[in-house]
Amino acid sequence: MIVAGCTKPTVTADVFGPPPAATPEPSSSPGAPTAERPVASLGDIVTRPGTAPLGPPAPSDAPAPRTPLVSGRPAPVEFAARPELADIHFDFDRYDIRPGDTTILDASAAWLRANAGTLVLIEGHCDERGTDAYNLALGDRRAKAAMDYLVSRGIQADRITTLSYGKERPVCREHTEACWAKNRRAAFSVKAR
């Protein structure tokens, strides 16, 4: 009988270090055979000496400090969507602005110029295909492409924050091309300065 299944990836405490190798453990008596430590395999939680495995934080009576996403910028939860700032969409595996979406961005730039006291958050999103890391990078490129377009239309870059959610916040959860096309987007929200 063969049993197969997928496991969720686990986080390691030292992502960039070399993988741990099998090393003999020191023996308490000379001449005694040495035992080897098992070699870590994919999915194992690996820690280096002096580090603790990543896991849920220990309970505390004090509230956790709130760390801003980007230093000096408001947190994404402080922004709100506006109907005047419509989403733009992207072709599969692309981050260039489509000709039809330039009209939407031009209207957004006009609204942002008329409302100079606002900051704008551009969120890059992807469909479910591709790895998490790839989609986060692609979502970042999509958000930055939208930002570059707005800057080329006179919006100050220091008013704009970009953020990538990759495939983590879909607007449609069906597994169809029509649904995936809705998820490949840059979404805009604003906050007063």
How does this structure look, described?
- It is a single chain.
- The chain has 193 residues and is α+β, with helices and mostly antiparallel strands.
- The chain has a domain at 88-192: 2-Layer Sandwich (60s Ribosomal Protein L30, Chain: A).
- It is 23% helix and 13% strand.
- It contains three helices and four strands, in the order βαβαβαβ.
- It has helices spanning 99-114, 132-152, 177-183, and strands at 88-89, 118-125, 160-166, 185-192.
- A four-stranded mixed β-sheet has the order 1-4-2-3.
- The longest helix is centred in the C-terminal third of the chain and has 21 residues, at 132-152.
- The termini are far apart.
- Mean pLDDT is 77; it is low at 6-58 and 64-71.
